[in-house]
Description:
This protein is 37% helix and 24% strand. The protein has 246 residues and is α/β, with parallel strands linked by helices. The chain has a domain of 145 residues: Rossmann fold (3-Layer(aba) Sandwich). Strands 6-7-8-3-9-10 form a six-stranded mixed beta sheet, with helices on both faces. Strands 2-1-4-5 form a four-stranded antiparallel beta sheet. A hairpin with a 2-residue loop joins strand 4 and strand 5. The protein is globular. Adenosine-5'-triphosphate (ATP) binds next to strand 2 and helix 1. Adenosine-5'-triphosphate binds next to strand 2 and helix 1. InterPro entries: AAA+_ATPase, ABC_transporter-like_ATP-bd, ABC_transporter-like_CS, ABC_Transporter_VariousFunc, P-loop_NTPase. It holds the Pfam family ABC_tran. GO terms for molecular function: ATP binding; ATP hydrolysis activity. This is ABC transporter ATP-binding protein.
Amino acid sequence: MGLKINNLSGGYAGNNVLKNVTFDVPDGNIVALIGLNGAGKSTTINHIIGELQPQMGTIELNGINLVQDPTGFKSQIAYIPEQPILYDELTLGEHLHLMLAAHNIDDEIAWQRAEQLLKRFRLDDKLHWLPVHFSKGMRQKVMLISAFMLDAPLIIIDEPFLGLDTVAQKDVVKLIHEQANKGNSVLMTTHLLASAAEFVDQFVVLHDGKSRFIGTPQALAEENQLQLDQLDDFFDLVQRELADES
Ligand SMILES: Nc1ncnc2c1ncn2[C@@H]1O[C@H](COP(=O)(O)OP(=O)(O)OP(=O)(O)O)[C@@H](O)[C@H]1O
């Protein structure tokens, strides 16, 4: 089933941002939410993680409605924010244990997943390190490990490549694929359209709080008379269109 967003309108007190946003992230699919700055990507994610209350519409994950059963809904989500959130006084190991406890996961398998991820990101000998010792990219990797070890039905990643070296970026793409291959849903935001086009199933283009296009990378490229590897030019076209309209 996966994530179903139906007719979502919402935003912040006194600022209605989203207008009738509808899209799905089916099981095993990778969907990238894209749009210019201020289009409403973070606002959509804030609604999905339950930080904002919808004015209208529904958000369901595997048949569980966010408003009717917020705990059941949120227990199915792993979320990686754009800016890492770490506690200064907790070591890397303690962060991972805290995340597992918060998700009520206490099993050997989850910890084995964490150990594999630590090795993959070359942090396996740094479990005793405090955040003050981490570089920006390492902080981002801690967030990635904390989220991917949960094996959640829906993983949400805000700008997955931000601050990562090219080796780690490739690792993230592999991890995203692995999640999808297990049948989990992946929702991400990105400004790197041509790179994302290589591995996402669908793009959802948000513009001014509305979903303006939903389809495969191929379809988005064709609609805009671009090659797939030219998709980074898409927003230049949108900007030009907006300038012509005004
Ligand atoms: N806390 C807030 N209170 C009121 N309005 C907000 C708040 N956060 C964002 N907005 C407004 O909501 C609109 C959508 O912002 P949002 O952060 O969702 O955009 P975005 O697509 O994530 O942009 P970016 O690419 O810059 O991250 C913007 O007009 C913004 O000014």
